[in-house]
Amino acid sequence: MFPEGIAYSPREKQFLLGSMLKHKIVACSIAAVCQTLVSEGRDGLGQVLGLRISPGDESLWATSNSAEESGLFHYSVPSGKLIRKYTLDGKAAPHLFNDLVAGPAATCLSPTRGPRPSTGYLTRRTVWRS
Q1: Are 130 and 114 in contact (CB under 8 A)?
Q2: Tens of pLDDT along 30-46?
């Protein structure tokens, strides 16, 4: 699986693991019982490098990278349902979303590498800023 991003959900008492190799997200209980939360490549999910649980609603934010697009994917926990994704086209210019921070005001930050490295952010009022 080659996990890179790891987050913990106190409400669900689960560790969430993002896979660079399999392009999926797995949820594992403290007793080491694991199940797929987001299946391989679903919703266009690519390499998962960063995962964070949002402190307000315990939803999951994941960074995703592929040749087609890079972005932030927002999932419901424990259902794994995609809430929304915010992407940049990778064909025009390559990007790499590495890690992120989820704060109480639903703000997410993700350092990016690409033609012009920057830090982007999302809030409840903005769609994407960099």
Answers
A1: no
A2: 999 999 999 999 999 99
pLDDT digits (tens, 9 = 90+) for 59-104: 999 999 888 888 889 999 999 999 998 887 777 767 778 888 776 6
- For residue 58, the tally of other CB atoms under 10 A from its CB is 14
Q: Could you tell me the pTM of the whole model?
A: 0.85
19's tokens:
């896979």
Look up the domain containing 94 and give its range.
3-122
Plot region of 106 (φ>0 → left; ψ -120 to 50 → alpha; else → beta): left
Residue 80 lies in a domain: yes
- Overall number of domains in the chain: 1
Nearest Cα to Cα of residue 75 among 104, 44, 34: 44
